[in-house]
Specification:
Layout lengths: L4 H14 L3 H13 L4 H30 L15
Length: about 80
């Protein structure tokens, strides 16, 4: 399948969110607009990126807690200031 430039830039917008890269997001949002993407299309790409990023972070946090344990879930104070 061949993607047009607008579609490629919308994918890059979502990937920028997943990478937590502000300069990337700005660049690819601007390029997407140049290629005719609407504000709604860009917002949908942003929301898709947020969903992926949130899901990955939640699963990784669970992995960390199961692998290393979470001292904040124990009876003793962990000393990290999160309580």
């Amino acid at each position: 399948m061949i993607f047009d430039n607008k579609f490629r830039e919308l994918i890059a917008v979502g990937a920028s969110i997943g990478a937590n890269c502000q300069p990337c997001l700005q660049y690819h949002s601007d390029k997407a607009k140049e290629y005719g993407a609407s504000e709604l299309e860009i917002r949908e790409a942003v929301n898709a990126g947020k969903t992926v990023r949130k899901g990955a972070a939640t699963r990784f946090d669970s992995f960390i807690d199961s692998s290393l344990g979470n001292p904040c879930n124990s009876e003793s104070a962990c000393g990290c200031g999160c309580k």
